[in-house]
Write a structure and sequence with these properties.
The complex is a heterodimer of chains A (about 400) and B (about 300). By secondary structure, chain A is an alpha/beta fold. Helix content of chain A is about 25%, strand content about 25%. In chain A, strands 9-13-8-5-6-7-14 form a 7-stranded parallel beta sheet, sandwiched between helices. In chain B, helix 3 packs across helix 4. Classes of the chains: A alpha/beta (about 400), B alpha/beta (about 300). Chains A and B meet through helix 5, helix 6, strand 9, strand 11 and strand 12 of A and helix 3, helix 4, strand 9, strand 11 and strand 14 of B.
């Protein structure tokens, strides 16, 4: 079955098509291109051909689905060799989808030290871990990561490739999708499989007023980035994760961007969307220094530190910490609001927290309306006492 | 230095509604504006031009009315405006949009392409990187600081890229696509709109490519369904004219927030208040079996 036509009369034997093919399906014989079965009909060669000698028959594009297998998750690591929460969330979701499609779930990791993730991956139900190990991949670089990942995708032909909606995922996924000429849906909040076996990618659009259901019926892989914190995985039965190491050949990549320095300035206290506990401060904190009381409490609880808009406007905390309508919307197990009066826009960002403790001097503060426990009093007296009590029980807390 | 800024004419998101009988967007009466994130890209381009010379071209793809947004960029000080408008482009997803825009920009010529970090209507942030791939040039997304450097007869960009945990300092060769974050600068107010300044309008023929790369045909993704989100927060939405007078008054009185059932408020000595808090913390984190005895 012919799906791609090369007009040997028009062909000038320039060889550009061979270089343009993202999946390496074109080889030159006496300068004339020959197309192998691994062709995905992406049309990159036809786009580039200066003579217009290549025609792609897209009516056959569906057939490219055949032979694509597996759900891949591009996983990322935090410092201290832990899987990021969003990676774990997507893996659990991939496991759930795999029960419908019968696919294997494969975690893909770029850089060094991925093997240490095995324990967490087994808990999330990953069948495989593909490790792209290469010194050049230690720090995220768009061009190198794209090359490495596209090569791996071309070789193994996954059905689905998912990324976290992180600064890396949202930079990398579109580049990879464009090279493969496939679809990509940004910032999905839910996934499903339709009757034809397509991945249904569900995402809010128009400022969150509307949920769009999107499919990618004729191209593979189907790709999406996933919003962190929304897919709360159900506990998976751990399974054995097989590790395969790939040494990616990146020598031929012309790297035009150089990462001079990578600075991690955000402390663990800033991970609002992932935290089980958030200790937040507002205008009542009085100064940036006073947030140390909240950090101490958050430290004991392994939580994050949030701030109201007025505290951020005062410059006491950065916007990464802001909770509320114009900051992050959070729903931790426990939210401790200190010196926060509870402006409407703040309440809207945290009222879905499972438990709320509010500490404020003003008995009339609106925050008390949503608090399970409201304490009218001086936060500078009370917060350190809570921290002290919890410290006495540190052994219990750290065993969580 | 020829700087191209990609902008989009977007509906004001607060005006977007869905027709519940057809599940399609209601476009009537919805005002469209320049995507707010794009103002930062235009401002950054103008600042580069002010320091290094060159010209700033604004490129947009959209319906004929999109020239309003291009004009407001011209009013900020951009030199030229180009609008790619053709009915065959409707239904483009990010891949088809990026392909068309990259073709268009290639025809116009460029040294640097700037974009806002995303649009307020679809919020994907994908068009910048996808254009960079089609143009085979580097990209840096989420840039919070941008400088140009001259050396060895070449211009490079030195940028600070915001990441989830901090930032990266990156040096990139030009041409490149750079998407800037909100807050990289303070966009100037547009000057007087000059209706005489021409916006160059081209159709898909200008791109010189096969039609199956454009619009719906060139889009691998399809939207199969749109459903309105049932906002629990709807009741908290700003008190507007859609509510009855009584509802508005009650909302103003309560702030729209429902009091939590079982909310307790205590006023007691710091020690005992702290114990109560510690108890609740333990309970919330499922540590009940060990912790309470400790505090009583």
């Amino acid at each position: 079955m012919k799906r791609i036509d090369i007009d040997s009369e028009l062909c000038s034997r320039c060889g550009l098509c061979e270089k343009s093919c993202p999946v390496g399906a074109i080889t030159l014989h006496d300068g004339l291109p020959a197309v192998e079965a691994s062709c995905t009909l992406c049309g990159a060669c036809a786009d580039l051909c200066p003579e217009g000698a290549i025609a792609v028959d897209r009516s056959q594009a569906e057939t490219t689905q055949a032979g694509h297998k597996g759900i891949w998750v591009f996983v990322e690591r935090e410092e201290h060799d832990e899987l990021t929460s969003v990676s774990a969330e997507i893996l659990c979701e991939a496991r759930r989808l795999s029960r419908r499609t019968g696919d294997d779930v494969t975690a893909v990791f770029c850089g060094a030290g991925g093997a240490e993730l095995r324990g967490s991956l087994e808990c999330c139900g990953a069948d495989n871990l593909f490790l792209l190990e290469n010194a050049q991949l230690e720090v995220y670089n768009t061009e190198l990561y794209t090359e490495a990942l596209v090569n791996l995708i071309a070789r193994h032909r996954p059905q689905i490739v998912l990324f976290g909606g992180t600064s890396t995922g949202r930079d990398l996924a579109p580049r990879v999708a464009a090279r493969l000429r496939t679809g990509l849906t940004a910032d999905c909040t839910a996934l499903d499989i339709d009757a034809e076996g397509n991945l249904v990618q569900i995402r809010p659009t128009y400022g969150g007023e509307i949920l769009a259901h999107i499919i990618c019926p004729h191209r593979r892989p189907q790709m999406a980035t996933i919003r962190p914190g929304v897919m709360k995985g159900t506990g998976e039965a751990p399974r054995k994760t097989r590790i395969q190491v790939f040494d990616s050949d990146l020598i031929s990549v012309r790297v035009r961007t150089r990462i001079l320095e990578e600075i991690k300035e955000l402390s663990r206290f800033s991970r609002l969307s992932e935290a089980d506990v958030i200790v937040s401060g507002g205008k009542g904190m009085g100064s940036a220094e006073n947030f140390k009381f909240l950090e101490e409490l958050a430290d004991v609880l392994g939580g994050a530190v949030g701030a109201s808009r007025s505290a951020v406007d005062e410059g006491w905390m950065t916007h990464h910490h802001q909770v509320g309508q114009t900051g992050k919307t959070v729903s931790p197990k426990l939210y401790i609001a200190c010196g926060i009066s509870g402006a409407l826009q703040h309440l809207m960002g945290m009222q879905d927290s499972k438990r709320i403790i509010a500490i404020n001097r003003d008995a009339g503060a609106p925050i008390f309306k949503v608090a399970d426990l409201g304490i009218v009093g001086d936060l500078f007296e009370i917060v350190p006492k809570i921290t002290g009590l919890l410290r006495e029980n540190k052994g219990v807390l750290s065993s969580r | 230095m020829k700087i191209i800024v990609c902008v989009k004419h977007v509906p004001r998101t607060q005006d977007v509604r869905i027709d519940s009988s057809t599940n399609t967007l209601v476009r009537e009466g919805v005002e469209s504006v320049l995507n707010p994130f794009d103002e930062f890209a235009v401002e950054e381009a103008l600042r580069i031009r002010e320091r290094f010379g060159g010209e700033v071209g604004i490129v947009s793809m959209g319906p004929p009315q999109a020239d309003q947004s291009i004009r407001s960029c011209l009013a900020m000080g951009a030199d030229r405006g180009y609008l790619l408008s053709d009915t065959c482009l409707s239904g483009s997803d990010t891949l088809a949009t990026s392909f068309a825009l990259s073709r268009m920009i290639e025809k116009i010529g460029f040294d640097l392409i700037l974009c806002g970090q995303e649009t307020t209507d679809s919020s994907t942030g994908q068009v910048g990187p996808e254009m960079a791939e089609f143009l085979n040039i580097p990209q840096v997304t989420c840039v919070m600081k941008l400088d140009l450097l001259y050396g060895d007869g070449k211009t490079t960009a030195s940028v600070k890229r915001e990441t989830d945990t901090g930032y990266q300092l990156i040096e990139t060769a030009l041409p490149a696509v750079i998407t800037v974050v909100k807050g990289i600068n303070k966009p100037r107010e547009p000057g007087k709109l000059d209706s005489q300044r021409p916006v160059v309008r081209v159709d898909a023929g200008f791109l010189g490519c096969q039609p199956d790369k454009l619009g719906m045909d060139g889009s691998p993704t399809q939207v199969v369904k749109m459903v309105p989100v049932r906002h629990r927060s709807r009741q908290y939405a700003i008190v507007d004219g859609s509510l009855s007078a009584a509802q508005r008054i009650s909302m103003l009185m309560t702030g729209g927030i429902k009091e939590k059932a079982g909310a307790t408020k205590v006023r007691e000595e710091p020690e005992s208040a702290a114990c109560k808090a510690a108890d609740l913390i333990g309970e919330s984190l499922a540590l009940t079996q060990v912790m309470p005895s400790k505090y009583h």
